[in-house]
């Protein structure tokens, strides 16, 4: 439909799964079959990535080995099994750093030599916020398994003035309404629609921190981390999808990296969310489309849950075109 007409706890694992003081080297190996997720049969063996990854709990733990997952929910399940946790305890994962670094957040891709750090639930807190401006200054993302959390706090914003609210905090309730299971764009919309010049209440859960991780609040810029960079130099990644099996692919091209980054920035600007998997899907959908109307129809087909405004679709189309032409 053309633009302008669109409507819009487990038993302990065997000791082979946890290795104390293991030196991390190659992570690829022969894996087991994928778990049966969501009542659906596992994909054929030929489609299952047979890879082994190393993982730790971000606040400190032995090293675990995980394998045989095809999406984010299954990944969390494997981590939970390895550390004898409930899967519901896992808030999000970062790659190659135990810090709450939103630039290292696990999204739709994992490098074959990436080390996975799982951040689990820590202190619960409740805070009252007075909405003195229309915009709160929050960017919301989610972990792909029902938990929305704060990815960025804009300096000088309403929320920046409430120092108990931090980047990485999971938003559990808004004004007493439990929002677990909602997608990040739904949470962002709820926050945006709260009336101005009134107070509202947030129930938050912060990630558990080791003593050495306790530091001044981060606004989520991330920056560059020299000591927590890539462990290896593998040029392939595991691409995780919310629908369909995971696949092993080449590292993103310069076009893909730039286009995904630009589309993710547009998602934040228009919708108050960041989602690299969603941005990558949009770039994938748009790369071979001939005009904005064709792109808009393909987006509606692929991402019907999102009611994207027409001006956003035009800007995304332009961003993909700019990346194709090398204009970034």
TrEMBL record:
Region (Disordered): 1-41, 215-234
The species this protein was found in: Culter alburnus (Topmouth culter)
PANTHER family: PDZ DOMAIN-CONTAINING PROTEIN GIPC2, RGS-GAIP INTERACTING PROTEIN GIPC
PDZ domain sequence ranges: 126-206
Pfam family for this entry, one: GIPC1_GH2
Source species taxonomy: Eukaryota, Metazoa, Chordata, Craniata, Vertebrata
UniProt similarity note: Belongs to the GIPC family.
Biased composition (Gly residues): 219-232
Composition skew (Basic residues), residue ranges: 1-11
Designated name of the protein: PDZ domain-containing protein
């Amino acid at each position: 439909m053309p633009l302008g007409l669109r409507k819009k706890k487990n038993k302990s694992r065997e000791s082979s799964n946890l290795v104390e003081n293991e030196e991390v080297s190659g992570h690829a190996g022969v894996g087991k079959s994928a778990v049966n997720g969501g009542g659906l049969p596992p994909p054929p063996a030929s489609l299952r990535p047979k890879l082994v990854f190393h993982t730790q709990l971000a606040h400190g733990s032995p090293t675990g080995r995980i394998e045989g997952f095809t999406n984010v929910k299954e990944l969390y399940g494997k981590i939970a099994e390895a550390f004898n946790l409930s899967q519901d305890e896992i808030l999000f994962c970062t790659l190659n750093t135990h810090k709450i670094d939103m630039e290292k957040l696990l999204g739709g891709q994992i490098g074959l030599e990436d080390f996975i750090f799982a951040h689990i639930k820590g202190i619960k807190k409740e805070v009252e916020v007075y909405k003195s401006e229309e915009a709160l200054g929050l960017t919301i993302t989610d972990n792909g398994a029902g938990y929305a959390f704060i990815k960025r706090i804009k300096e000088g914003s309403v929320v920046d003035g409430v120092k108990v609210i931090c980047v990485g905090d999971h938003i559990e309730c808004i004004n007493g309404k439990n929002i677990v299971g909602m997608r990040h764009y739904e949470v962002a919309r709820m926050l945006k629609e709260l009336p101005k010049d009134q107070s509202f209440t947030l129930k938050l859960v912060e990630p558990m921190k080791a003593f050495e991780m306790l530091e001044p609040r981060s606004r989520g810029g991330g920056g560059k981390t020299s000591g927590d960079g890539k462990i290896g130099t593998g040029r392939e990644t595991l691409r995780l999808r919310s629908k369909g099996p995971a696949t092993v692919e080449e590292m993103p091209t310069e076009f893909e990296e730039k286009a995904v980054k630009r589309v993710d920035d547009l998602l934040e600007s228009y919708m108050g969310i960041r989602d690299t998997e969603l941005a990558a899907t949009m770039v994938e959908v748009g790369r071979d489309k001939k005009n904005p109307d064709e792109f808009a129809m393909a987006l509606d087909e692929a991402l019907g849950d999102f009611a994207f405004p027409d001006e956003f679709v035009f800007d995304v189309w332009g961003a993909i075109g700019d990346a194709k032409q090398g204009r970034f």
